[in-house]
Amino acid sequence: MVSPLFLCIFAADMGKIIVAGIGPGSKEDITPAVLEAVREADAVVGYKYYFQFIEAYVKPGCECIDTGMKKERERAEQAFLLAEQGKTICVISSGDAGLYGMAPLIYEMKRERQSDIEIVSLPGISAFQKAASLLGAPIGHDVCLISLSDLMTPWNVIERRIMAAAVGDFVTAVYNPKSHGRYWQLYRLQELFLQERSADTPVGYVRQAGREEQEVKITTLGAFDPEDVDMFTIILIGNSQSYVAEGKMITPRGYYREEKQEDVKPGQSIMMESFRTILSEMQHPDVPTWRMWPLLHAIHTTVDFSMEECLWMDDRATEILYGKVVDGSLKHIVTDVTMAASGIRKGALERLGIEVHCYINDPRSKQMADERGITRSQACMQLAAEEYPEALYVVGNAPTALFEICDLVRKGKMHPVGIIAAPVGFVHVCESKHAVKSLKQIPKIIVEGRKGGSNLAATLCNAILTFDDAEQLKPGRDL
Prior knowledge:
By secondary structure, the protein is of the alpha/beta class. The chain has 19 helices and 19 strands.
């Protein structure tokens, strides 16, 4: 039977491994806890380049053991051999030891060796944190870290992670961006991010953060040059909300937005959040405001991002039509069906003094349709031409209504201030939209192809009536 005294003596003889992150490269960035661990150590194990940052703190007789670059496993084995002799060993890593550092390897080796050695892991200031502080405040919201080193991780796995970060709108820190033999990976990362992010997205990068050779630069995702980067560089790619002000890169957390929205009703708040989400997921968010605003409305109503491809507009159409609201020349809106009319916001109409008219249930339209052998929708447009020839015409159902508008305009019987063309279906729908495009002098918003509908036509109309809210991305004022 083993005596308790023997167990106590054996336990006392066991050493300890302290895995410590010494920060990005300046003595000022080493934490007090790490300095104390260095002072306590009987030996310090690490890459020799890092000894210069801690040699002033080691105790007399402490051995600094270098295993050479890319010898991490040998470094860990050396630490265990010394600790098993009853010594306190400090294994140092740059930045944070748990982040692309020695801590995971030490814990894995402890399990492999079935060792009883005590492991203590002390955090350090990581390179991406130091770089962020030098750039301003670029990691104020959700952030992810990606290493481009494919020595231990297959490139196809790294590429999937890059795509996930880009799609997820994370602020992204890029470690190990380049080496002598690894030069194309950063170009590929830039290509993948540009598929999901605006070319204007801020990008900051810092070389030799915290050291005498330190260089700090800010550019954009589109202008970023991978050739300006080396293995000592940390790159930070902003998210869709990041911006540059007074030479600093900032990613807002949302405090000011919360303050400014104290007067926002719950329904409007939900719509605003929806628009921000849509904007972050759009393939091409960097479009002019006059296009972006109705596009956000269309995607919000349909939950269909293909609207990016099929929503067609004349140049500055939204801006021009809102100008007609402001100068008073747009006072009437005519729709082809009541569903389109009911979807136009009553609060906006009252606020702007605009009236909506729909003739589909007018007895005169039925009588005219029967007498002339035309559809009810055609009859509605003929009636509207007699009473409101200069209205904004909004079609969300019937292609025959759209054809009739074209015919009446060409005959000089109607002079619309604008046209929203969104009939839906399979028969003559596409053709009616092609026809309305020929009306060159009239500003138009058209849902191309078979898609459309009264709800879509109405929301495009709402986008025009609220265009003054577009710059602040503040929809839903009239909910």
